[in-house]
Design brief:
Helices cover 22% and strands 29% of the residues. It has helices at residues 64-77, 91-99, 110-115; strands at residues 4-6, 8-11, 14-21, 54-59, 83-88, 104-106, 121-125, 130-133.
Length: 134
């Protein structure tokens, strides 16, 4: 059986995708909406696309307008992440995910961070708080 990890729903949805881990916080306004690539030069994922990925990151960066508009622009061009797993979900980030109906969870176990890596395929069922390695 595939291993399951419990999580806490912030914004619902069920998706399958490839994990992409970031040690740096994300400012969605510094992601090119045409390509989904991170354009923040100092970011650990600079030049990589988050489009269609299940992005794992510590926190969101930027004001409410910057976060919401950045996420909206990515969604409108289809370059948004499939889902988000965040360690520290601030109100702005959580509200933006809920408004845009973007799956988002937090409170992953230490096992998740120790056992899974970039490129691992998973299914996230945010509604039921379960992530399954597939």
């Amino acid at each position: 059986m595939d291993k399951q990890y419990k999580c806490h729903k912030i914004s619902g949805g069920k998706v399958k995708g490839e994990l992409l881990f970031s040690k740096d916080g994300l400012c969605f306004y510094l992601i090119d909406p045409k390509t989904g690539k991170i354009i923040e030069k100092e970011h650990c994922l600079y030049g990589q696309s988050i489009a269609g990925k299940i992005i794992v990151f510590p926190y969101g960066k930027g004001s409410s307008v910057v976060q919401a508009d950045g996420m909206y622009q990515l969604q409108m061009t289809g370059m948004n992440p499939a889902a988000m797993i965040v360690m520290n979900a601030d109100t702005t980030l959580a509200a933006s995910a809920i408004i845009l109906e973007a799956p988002m969870v937090n409170k992953m176990s230490d096992d998740f961070y120790n056992e899974l890596h970039n490129g691992d395929m998973v299914e996230l069922d945010a509604d039921n708080g379960i992530l399954t390695r597939i």
